[in-house]
């Protein structure tokens, strides 16, 4: 393992990542493959980096902490909203049976798909569209992770969670200060719990304006 990567793994452990499977997967996925050439030198810095279209690849500690909190089992079906670079999807794919990931920018989705094929990750299904609606054809999901900040709890996604399922979603109208909430679906309804403060790009509902699509 490179010195930079080793340092990042140590940072993750210091930041509270104790799940050995999560640490092993974070060590196995080359983050430099998910950033533009301009930022390769900083691929193992513990920070979010730009990926174009005003979007970012999330901070490694946040990726690891959310992945750990998802508590993914090997037979699970996972839905991710906000494919971005595909980095989080690659990590989920190594832990779950199948991952469905939705991105509103076609270009980001295509680039992410190509990266995962290059890494021989084949259990991810990519969709382009508005992820706030989820992906009903494959519902219910054992786990759902939203990697963009929702102004309020996206109820369409809650409805696609299996009983006993867990969803992690950053919630808050503030553009620089949101809270990851853990939603657990029970037989009778849902429970909500605040986990950690984060800063994500916004989850934007609806179709892209044509000049952006
Ligand atoms: N998980 C990504 C980081 C995502 S950044 C990674 O590992 O790199 C958040 C992403 O959510 C952006 O790419 C943004 O375009 C996307 N996004 C925002 N609103 C969305 C929506 N309603 N549906 C699907 N994707 C959305």
Automatic annotation (TrEMBL):
Pfam families assigned: PCMT (PF01135)
Coiled coil: none
Active-site residue numbers: 58
TM segment ranges: none
EC number: 2.1.1.77
GO molecular function annotation: protein-L-isoaspartate (D-aspartate) O-methyltransferase activity
Transport among keywords: no
Keywords for this protein: Cytoplasm, Methyltransferase, S-adenosyl-L-methionine, Transferase
UniProt main location, coarse: cytoplasm
Subcellular localization, as worded in the UniProt entry: Cytoplasm
CC annotations in GO: cytoplasm
GO biological process: methylation; protein repair
Classification via InterPro entries: PCMT (IPR000682), SAM-dependent_MTases_sf (IPR029063)
Catalytic activity: [protein]-L-isoaspartate + S-adenosyl-L-methionine = [protein]-L-isoaspartate alpha-methyl ester + S-adenosyl-L-homocysteine
HAMAP family per the UniProt record, alphabetical: PIMT (MF_00090)
Family, per entry: Belongs to the methyltransferase superfamily. L-isoaspartyl/D-aspartyl protein methyltransferase family.
PANTHER family: PROTEIN-L-ISOASPARTATE O-METHYLTRANSFERASE, PROTEIN-L-ISOASPARTATE(D-ASPARTATE) O-METHYLTRANSFERASE
Task of the protein: Catalyzes the methyl esterification of L-isoaspartyl residues in peptides and proteins that result from spontaneous decomposition of normal L-aspartyl and L-asparaginyl residues. It plays a role in the repair and/or degradation of damaged proteins.
Name this protein carries in UniProt: Protein-L-isoaspartate O-methyltransferase
Organism per entry: Vineibacter terrae
Gene from which the chain derives: pcm
């Amino acid at each position: 393992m490179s010195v930079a990567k080793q340092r990042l793994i140590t940072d993750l452990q210091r930041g509270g990542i104790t799940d050995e499977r999560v640490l092993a997967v974070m060590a196995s996925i080359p983050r430099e493959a998910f950033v533009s050439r301009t930022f390769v030198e900083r691929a193992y810095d513990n920070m979010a980096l730009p990926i174009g279209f005003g979007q970012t690849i999330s901070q490694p500690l946040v990726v690891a902490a959310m992945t750990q909190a998802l508590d993914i089992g090997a037979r699970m079906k996972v839905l991710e909203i906000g494919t971005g670079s595909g980095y989080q999807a690659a990590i989920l794919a190594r832990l779950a049976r199948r991952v469905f990931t939705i991105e509103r920018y076609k270009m980001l989705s295509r680039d992410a798909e190509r990266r995962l094929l290059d890494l021989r990750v084949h259990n991810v299904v990519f969709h382009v569209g508005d992820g706030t609606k989820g992906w009903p054809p494959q519902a219910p999901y054992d786990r759902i992770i939203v990697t963009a900040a929702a102004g309020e709890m996206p109820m369409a996604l809650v409805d696609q969670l299996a009983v006993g399922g867990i969803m992690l979603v950053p919630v808050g109208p503030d553009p620089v200060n949101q809270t990851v909430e853990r939603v657990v679906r029970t037989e009778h309804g849902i429970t909500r719990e605040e986990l950690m403060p984060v800063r994500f790009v916004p989850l934007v509902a609806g179709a892209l304006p044509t000049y952006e699509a």
